[in-house]
Write a structure and sequence with these properties.
- It is elongated, with a radius of gyration of 24 Å.
- It is 69% helix and 0% strand.
- It has a single domain, classed as Four Helix Bundle (Hemerythrin (Met), subunit A).
- With 246 residues, the chain is mainly alpha-helical.
- It has seven helices and no strands.
Length: 246
């Protein structure tokens, strides 16, 4: 292709609307770029579903095998803190959705505000989760050599309420806490990654990005954030609400 043809080719037009600055050179149109990015994001989320799905499957299998031990372990978790964290994440999904809406409406200040609100809620969630982890460490509920079940109370009505959980169930209870730390730990890691990305998005949004007609990045990150929230919606009842009735 000669220089004149290159100069008149739509993909090399700098002054027109055919080639906005955010359109990558290997895409013909903005719509093609958006659809490709969205497809890639959904494909990534599919791999995440398979990843967490494996842990959920392991949890359900061991819960069926060691149900009394899982019930005893669940009673060592705080429903209050778990409920607060659930509410925090639901609110963060709302603020993230409002961020996507603000980008669509090309409202820069609102976009930055909602992204910052999402960061704050994410940090609150991690702070509460860190407090829970600290409590488990102090009570020796972290699987390992110092793991202890002496303070567990049998919740089976057939036994006295003050009767300690038999020591032969210690290993089975460790399975519960191993899955607890593995599943909530991976979820927390996804939250940390998400907050780190959000900080970068806020910096770029303040510079004017995402409100000039190109909001695919915000949309795709919104999908990621909602996925992380949905994972917690499943974790909360499975880990915290096992046979809480007496």
């Amino acid at each position: 292709m000669d220089s004149q043809a290159i100069a008149t080719h739509p993909d090399h037009t700098h002054a027109g609307h055919e080639h906005p600055p955010y359109l990558r050179h290997h895409f013909a149109t903005v719509e093609q770029q958006r659809e490709t990015s969205s497809f890639g994001m959904w494909l990534f989320l599919l791999t995440e579903i398979m990843f967490f799905g494996g842990m959920f499957a392991a949890y359900m299998i061991y819960r069926n095998w060691y149900y009394p031990a899982f019930v005893a372990g669940s009673h060592q978790l705080s429903i209050v803190l778990g409920t607060i964290n659930t509410a925090v994440l639901i609110c963060s999904s709302f603020t993230m959705a409002m961020g996507v809406y603000s980008a669509e409406m090309r409202r820069k200040s609102a976009l930055v505000m909602w992204l910052l609100a999402t960061i704050v809620l994410g940090v609150v969630f991690l702070g509460i989760k860190a407090d829970e982890y600290h409590e488990k460490w102090e009570k020796h509920h972290v699987p390992g050599l110092n793991f202890s079940v002496q303070d567990f109370v049998r919740v089976n009505p057939a036994y006295p309420e003050d009767k300690a959980l038999p020591l032969d169930m210690a290993e089975k209870t460790q399975v519960y806490f191993s899955l607890y730390f593995a599943m909530t730990g991976m979820h927390a890691l996804h939250m940390i990654i998400g907050i780190s990305i959000l900080i970068g998005l806020v910096i770029k949004a303040q510079a004017g990005a995402y409100t000039q007609g190109h909001m695919t990045t915000i949309e795709n990150f919104g999908l990621y954030w909602h996925f992380v929230d949905i994972v917690w919606i499943f974790l909360f009842p499975l880990l915290y609400l096992i046979s809480r009735h007496q």
